[in-house]
Amino acid sequence: MKEKQKAQLGTIRLTDRLLEERLKNLPHLDSSSIALNELISLVKEGVTEFPKELIQQVAIQDLLNALKKSHGIYLNIKLPEIEQSIYNLYSKQTNSDNVLLMLCGFFISYQKKLVAHIQYEEVFLFPYIQSLLEFQKSGTAIDRERFGNFTLKQFFDNHSNLEEDLNDVRSKITENIDGLKTPLAFRIFMIQLEHFEKDLAIHAVLEDDVLLPRLVEMEIHLLG
User: Fold this and answer.
1) Tens-of-pLDDT digits for all 224 residues of the chain?
2) Which residues contact 37 (CB under 8 A, 6 or more apart)?
3) pTM of the model
4) Over the range 154-193, which residues count as b (16 or more CB within 10 Å of their CB) and which as e?
5) pLDDT of residue 23
6) Cα–Cα distance between 86 and 208 in angstroms, integer?
7) Within the chain, what is the greatest distance between any pair of CA atoms?
8) Which of 77, 99, 117, 157 is deepest in the core (most CB within 10 A)?
9) Contact 210, 55 (CB under 8 A)
10) Quick one: which of 184, 199, 217 has its CA closest to 84?
């Protein structure tokens, strides 16, 4: 019994040392990065209202970079992984899978809208935001030949909730698979949708509830 306790104690001490070493090797985080990480943690826990002080601690540029990074992950990792699951289902198709393939089509239609939304933000919205930040910093005029009369308030008022659309897609698929025998590729596909929906929810909070309200306020202050 004593030998077992000694072994457990040794394991605990080793774990503590490894954790301590890991903490020492973590990169230094500035206050904005720490606040952003805390904000994301709160979102994951289901919090929907955040302390104003916490939101103000997060630099707008850090928020913008986090959203851009998310876009890259969606386009280069998440969506290709989901596409691979759908391809695996198609490649092993049997007559009983026809309904499942039709249900996958709901996501394929949604994906086209999501990709178009991301591309719009990357090509137009984010460059406009950068121009607004540059105007605040140095007074450099916004290129109205490129952006026209576009305003963030206009975008914010007409912004669609793509994470809610994905929830509708997943719910519609779930309702229609009741009683069906689902192969592994389809079950993986459904798990991926669930995880992707959670990722999009975090992205939406950062964009719609944190970034855009601050920027709309800034835009009104700067441009009237």
Assistant:
1) 445 444 444 444 554 555 455 435 545 557 898 889 888 988 888 887 888 888 888 999 999 999 999 999 999 999 999 999 988 888 876 655 677 888 888 999 999 999 999 999 999 999 999 999 999 999 888 999 999 999 898 887 777 788 888 989 999 888 888 777 888 888 899 999 999 999 999 999 999 889 998 999 999 888 87
2) 29
3) 0.80
4) ebbeeeeebbebbbebbeebeeeeeeeebbebbebbbebb
5) 39
6) 30
7) 79
8) 117
9) yes
10) 184
Question: Residue 85 has which token pair?
Answer: 């699951």
Nearest of 148, 156, 146 to residue 218 by alpha carbon:
156
Secondary structure letter of residue 95 according to DSSP? G
Residue 172, pLDDT score? 87
Cα angle 111, 152, 49; round to 5: 80
Non-local CB neighbours of 174 within 8 Å, separated by 6+ positions: 190
Quick one: which of 4, 93, 63 has its CA closest to 102? Answer: 93
Q: Any long-range contacts for 200-206 (C-beta under 8 Å, 24+ apart)? A: 200/162, 200/163, 200/166, 201/43, 201/163, 202/40, 202/43, 202/44, 203/67, 203/70, 203/163, 204/161, 204/162, 204/163, 205/43, 205/48, 206/39, 206/40, 206/43, 206/63, 206/66, 206/67
Residue type, 20: E
